[in-house]
Specification:
By secondary structure, the protein is mainly α. Helices cover 69% and strands 2% of the residues. It contains 8 helices and 2 strands; from the N terminus they run αββααααααα.
Length: 262
């Protein structure tokens, strides 16, 4: 870690911006303070904005913010209606929360690289600060594990424990002799869902952040924003698609959990 005022090499600059602010012994119980802070901050921002709009909603001519919120709600609601085939009042609010929350965390990637870490280090003595929570593997994987827990819960609730076990043991080959093969196939497929769900979001956001850092490391501080503009324009599409994909896969997985084929 360089002292304040000491110039960083391109390599150390990249390493510095990819390092989290942590508390712990460096092992399993290490906590990434910055990822937790920005994920909670964006989540609270989402709740505050939507709650405020809901309280002030009018049946007359809506304001711009109310129009935006209504568009988001309608978009997510239509996506749920087209994809989810069960009956569950939780799915639409969950999908809306996931989409908006991930979008807000992803949008943090559009903030210039040194805009927050520089004052945090030089004014407040905070050595590291990663502002993109979804570029930290712990946050996407925590969200995907939450979705996985809901998948298991509703699979057992809708199909029963016996029905869920039969789905794993007797699919795709409905014969007792094929149970070991079916279990291997179905368990691997089941576990792959949360892993791929979380790693897809993390991989795309981490790669985008690395590109921004590389651009910033190769340019003087006063021109960083100018060099990042072309990539930022393209990256807006990426952050939107990643939030949408995570939401849609969540809906699909929970829809499958509600299907009682036995």
């Amino acid at each position: 870690m360089s002292a304040p005022g000491e110039a960083l090499t391109p390599s150390s600059y990249i390493t510095h911006h990819l390092t989290n602010l942590t508390v712990g012994d460096g092992g399993f119980w290490t906590v990434h303070i910055d990822s937790l802070f920005f994920s909670v901050m964006t989540g609270l921002a989402f709740l505050w904005v939507f709650h405020s709009v809901a309280k002030k909603a009018t049946s007359g001519v809506p304001g711009k913010l109310q129009c935006f919120v209504e568009i988001m709600v309608e978009f997510v609601d239509n996506s749920v209606k087209e994809t989810f085939h069960g009956r569950n009042k939780l799915i639409a609010p969950l999908a809306l929360t996931i989409f908006c929350w991930i979008m807000l965390m992803n949008i943090m990637d559009l903030i210039p690289i040194d805009f927050l870490p520089y004052p945090a280090q030089h004014w407040f003595g905070i050595p590291y600060l990663k502002v993109v929570a979804t570029a930290d593997v712990n946050i996407p994987m925590a969200m995907s594990l939450g979705v996985f827990a809901l998948m298991i819960y509703y699979s057992i609730k809708v199909k029963g424990l016996g029905g869920f076990a039969k789905e794993l043991a007797l699919h795709p080959f409905n014969h007792p002799i094929m149970i070991p093969f079916n279990l291997l196939l179905e368990v691997v497929s089941l576990l792959a869902k949360p892993i791929s769900l979380g790693m897809r979001l993390f991989g795309n956001m981490f790669a985008g952040e690395v590109v921004f850092i590389l651009i910033a490391a190769l340019m003087p501080w006063w021109a960083q924003w100018l060099g990042s503009v072309p990539w930022a324009i393209f990256h807006i599409l990426i952050i939107t698609i990643q939030a949408f994909v995570f939401m849609m896969l969540t809906i699909v997985y929970l829809s499958q959990a509600h299907e009682d084929n036995h």
